[in-house]
Design brief:
185 residues; alpha+beta; 4 helices; 8 strands
Amino acid sequence: MKPPVILLLAALPLPTLAQELTTIADIALGTKQDRVIQLMIKKHDQLPRKLKSTLVYNNLELGQYRVKYAAFYLHQDKVYQADAMVRPEKKKTLETYATIVEELKKQYGAPSMTVDEFELPYMKGDGHHEKAFHEYKATLQDLWFFPPGSDHNNCAYSIRMEVHRDLSITITYTDERALQRARQE
């Protein structure tokens, strides 16, 4: 059995300012563009589609999951953010989400914040979660901020995982300080 997608992350202790957070396919935040391309050719035999300062890879197999896309966002030729969209099997969105969260917990500890809300007429566990997400009546997100104890406004790194209206799941890894620098330019 193949390991889940998050097991492709390097087994690192919690990231500190001196360490880069490892993302999709073992590619660390801060990795240079040419190195990302080399690693993805080696691991997935695929060249990226380049969109401005983003490298996009489509239809990857990461662990047991089919990933619709993985994207590496670049600033000054280095990755400052990476995300992947997982398309769970039909009727398996919440199960897949929970499995990935558990793997991230093993690696990084409990999330810094979890949002799991349903609006009327829907309720958690009522069996209608798919319809609730389609109608924007449900929110499911987990966020990790590093160093531990920090929040979104003063963290060095973050991981954000969420379910979308189309029942896809995205996992986003961000070097928050590099993101701020990219936004300022």
